[in-house]
Design goal:
Six copies of one chain form a homohexamer. By secondary structure, chain A is mostly helical. Chain A folds into two domains: about 60 residues; about 80 residues, AhpD-like (Up-down Bundle). Chain A is built from eight helices and no strands. Chain A starts with a helix and ends with a helix. Chains in contact: A-B, A-C, A-D, A-E, A-F, B-C, B-D, B-E, B-F, C-D, C-E, C-F, D-E, D-F, E-F. At the C-F interface, helix 1 and helix 3 of C face helix 1 and helix 3 of F.
């Protein structure tokens, strides 16, 4: 790939890092995922930073809080507990309320069934307890 | 079940019908689902009206447009094409923009993969084409 | 594989065929699946006959009607519409009632959500309509 | 909601509690789920009691043992391990045999594949071991 | 985004187009997906070209035929019939045999169950029939 | 079942055992799964040995390394972490490289989304760390 290409990936990478910084205004978002990717599959770490954060989650057309509520709902629906924990924290960090997040999860009982929605609530319990222990305001 | 119980189910049923009316301000929402349920499993038709519409989708805590964007995202993620078509229309009927809906669907490429997200976009194409053919404003 | 091996597979194959015959006491069960397998992947046709029908569905420990209700419930849950249609017919052919089958499907609204359960009910509508058109008693 | 409405929800709630009592004739069914829901999303605790237990699982049309075998099969199929553990205990508490439950799980190798069915068997191993340790008869 | 950024995306876009050309050596791969994306969600069309084709499927580390067999297997497993049809054609176009593709699909009966694997075989039947009708050699 | 039948199942069983031996040339493949099956559902232990290993994974038409890469990809896609750990070890034991396995997993970000693919990478991290700790060459 040419130098120009590397430069531009850097642009996307930096946009991804800015997104990470925005997400981490409150309690720091776990970077254990990035550590694993950098160690085992570094190209995925770059894809996560450039494509997921730099391209998709940085897009216009939806306000960031709504994007994060969508993530909370979908991650509940697909049972991705690790990422749900991460994005529930992000959503709270950027100003969503706990009530909104509980609604985004509990509504999924209708769409993916009670067992999956209840698993999402159990993840929220851990997130809320951890934030309470840290003395975070929301 | 006592008369009182029947009366109260009627309360929840009417709240569900009010939700249906709210959802149908624009092009009418398909009632083919309700027809099938009333014919084959009438108790599910009541559950859909009372529990889904009267209880869950009528809850406070999230504005109705955000609730519908969540539904659009989750129905994309689980590949429920019939219900996605229905709720994409509901979302547009209650004031979401096409751009918001496209974002809610396309963002899922990150979370459930491109094939599933692309299927969602194909459903939106049908919804938008049908609304254009009907001369609906959004 | 030795002649003995072929002979024994024949035993399992015949037990599978006996199961098919039991399943087909009423309206004939579609063999379009078997035709496709025999044409494209004949080893899967043998696996379906020997392993699925000859081994698993012929096992003791559950009465055949309960086994078929389990199949109806699980095939609803995983959205396997073609196989749900087939096994709903099998269940009715071996003596399950329509009410039991509707319950087995509609109960899944709790466990996998309303969209998936409703899709199951739509399949049942087709099955019941086809059997009514054929003048089958249940 | 009117007093009448509250009264009727109480009727559904009590029917749900009766179902819980029926389910708990043997070793007590874990209430950790209810504790979490009451703490984080109390409306879901009520929905679980009124809708899931009071409405759906209290319906006529299928005997309770068959309903529970369906739950065991479907919860295996969707990989809901926590709820599978709960409903395997319920099934045994209301009179299903271990053999029936093993069949309901192992049959799913055909329908959702061996990895998922094997995970179900691993849950059963935990359930059976715990009941053996408690000296429960089945 | 700067001019440089646009240029580099063009590099990735062209690498994606080269991949498309490689995939289409035999019967042309359907572009109906790209048409829909360009019409409804043009940013997804660019993501598909740049990220999916230009980045991921152009990576070193696995030969292209093995990558396509993986796609055939995974698309079978997740029930993505439209994309399975597309990638089965791609796999044949770049030199995989029909036997390899049938094995990649039929093996999934073990891992995701017979209904899903059989659906994959039905897609292959359509692909093989269409190629036979077009007089393609494999 | 007749003596002949038992004999032939023994043939398939031994073919399954030969496959296990082939898979275990390097670090031994965990047999905790077989222990659980033999204890709780011994008929599934035989099915795993005869059908999965003796029939399907012993088929011609695909070289064993490609079969295992397919397993790694599909087990990632369906989130079967226990079996992914097992088959990633098998793949390495029979000569696949770590790079190939990382590609087989990371490519799935496109097809089933980043959360599921990242979970796969986390499993690989455990597998690689364990093999490093054991001093295995690949």
């Amino acid at each position: 790939m040419s130098d120009n290409a590397d430069y531009v990936n850097e642009v996307r990478y930096q946009r991804g890092q800015a997104k990470i910084a925005e997400f981490s205004k409150g309690p720091s978002v776990t970077d254990s995922v990035m550590n694993t990717l950098n160690k085992v599959a570094p190209h995925m770490a770059r894809q996560a930073m450039e494509f997921v954060l730099g391209d998709v989650l940085s897009r216009p057309g939806l306000d960031p809080r709504t994007r994060e509520l969508l993530n909370v709902a979908v991650l509940t629906a697909i049972g991705a507990e690790l990422e749900l924990k991460l994005h529930a924290n992000v959503a709270l960090n950027i100003g969503c309320t706990r009530e909104q997040i509980v609604e985004a999860v509990s509504q999924q009982a209708v769409y993916v069934g009670f067992p999956t929605a209840i698993n999402g609530i159990k993840v929220l319990e851990q997130v809320f307890d951890a934030r309470d222990a840290q003395g975070v305001s929301n």
